[in-house]
Specification:
Number of strands: 23
Oligomer: single chain
Helix content: 10-25%
CATH class of the largest domain: Alpha Beta
Structural class: alpha+beta
Shape: globular
CATH topology of the largest domain: Rossmann fold
Radius of gyration: 21 Å
């Protein structure tokens, strides 16, 4: 959620063909690499808070809540009820979150996988670089929230399985990525992490990232990037990364430790991708070009949905109004100015890296702890 919302999703267990206590299946074996019967799922969804003066609610996210859809997905997939915990809004106090997560993890066995999902607000202390998730009863003290290290501590101390995949769709969600990279080398748990944003960045208030996850697990052909008939872990990560960059202008993060199979097959493709549907394009309208996705095709005509607009603006366009999306890209080392989200003023910075229209920048006079990824329209060449 924009500014300080967290949709921390720690989702999806991968273990079906177990050899020597470890899951080994992937798409090349022609079978799925997760077994619902041995997967534990922990979902927390908070869209309104006890302290509404501190944590604003998200009424626009209430209809068709994706946290509910994730819970429904895992139930339908066959995760046993005793292995699935879903805490929504007022149920998700800090005490109950910690208690029920511990209980769930204590029931796990070797060779299993854990799934944890959190939706709500989050916040980062820029001095300490620590990040917390706001429980329903969180107050104005940092420690009243659920700290990112606490999540890993619970997994390390109570999880008897092998793999933990952490997915976050929220502001500063990359804190999970950073923590996993620190913990993984000395941990008995194999971590995978996919997040909607970099640790220092806020995230969109839309469900774009979680929609990408659902598209992958549901076996939609658009996520099968290599066309082998299966949706793999790395494909869900890449698909989400592309969607977030194109639609929201933010950088998703993906990490998998050495023993975590990036080619793990999470879903079999139910229906092949329709050619040209789902393409990321630019469409001309009154002399300006706007980012859009194709949603239907009829001959040489495509129906498009414009980024950031409602479906009321969807329209059919011909080839003269559509072009591939080739975003402008600055080079590493370029001296630029960046518009900072918090005050919408421009500040001098240097390009550290660029990808698909996004740029990682380092602000003049600051170290890497203040680096950010910024989207199109928020970077311009510096005029000396």
């Amino acid at each position: 959620m924009r500014l300080s919302a967290w949709l921390l999703a720690v989702l999806c267990g991968l273990s079906i063909s177990v050899k020597g206590g470890r899951a080994s299946a992937d798409a090349d074996n022609g079978e799925l690499d997760w077994d619902p019967a041995t997967t534990s799922v922990f979902i927390v969804g908070i869209l309104e808070w006890e302290r509404s003066d501190l944590y604003g609610s998200f009424p626009a996210c209430m209809p068709n809540r994706r946290d509910e859809q994730l819970a429904q997905f895992f139930r339908k997939a066959g995760v046993p009820e005793e292995r699935l915990v879903y805490l929504q809004d007022s149920e998700a106090t800090k005490a109950r979150i910690k208690k029920e997560l511990k209980q769930l993890l204590d029931e796990t066995d070797e060779g299993e996988m854990v799934v944890i999902y959190f939706a709500g607000h989050g916040y980062r202390d820029e001095d300490s670089n620590e990040t917390w998730f706001a429980c329903y009863d969180a107050g104005d003290e940092n420690e009243s929230g659920w700290g990112v290290p606490e999540i890993f501590d619970a997994v390390e101390n109570h999880f008897s399985g092998d793999r933990a995949l952490l997915l976050a769709d929220c502001c500063h969600s990359g804190a999970l990525y950073d923590e996993a990279k620190v913990r993984a080398p000395d941990s008995d748990v194999t971590y995978g992490v996919i997040t909607s944003s970099y640790a220092h960045n806020t995230s969109t208030g839309n469900w774009t990232f979680t929609d990408s996850l659902l598209s992958g697990w549901r076996g939609e052909g658009a996520v099968d990037l290599n066309g082998n008939g299966y949706v793999e872990l790395r494909e869900i990560a890449r698909y989400g990364e592309l969607e977030l960059a194109f639609i929201e202008g933010q950088k998703s993060m993906f990490y998998a430790s050495e023993e975590f199979p990036r080619a793990a097959a999470l879903a079999e493709v139910e229906e092949e991708k329709t050619p040209r549907v789902g393409e990321r394009v630019e469409v001309e309208w009154k002399g300006k070009w706007f980012r859009a996705k194709t949603i239907a095709v009829d001959g040489d005509q495509v129906q498009v949905h414009y980024n950031g607009f409602s479906s009321d603006t969807d329209e059919w366009v011909g080839p003269d109004r559509v072009r591939p999306y080739y975003p402008a890209q600055f080079a590493e080392g370029d001296q630029v100015e960046v518009m900072w989200d918090k005050d919408e003023k421009w500040y001098p910075a240097r390009i550290e890296r660029g990808w698909f229209g996004l740029h990682k920048v380092r602000y003049d006079g600051f170290d890497s702890s203040s680096d950010e990824w910024v989207g199109p329209g928020k970077v311009r060449l510096r005029v000396e």
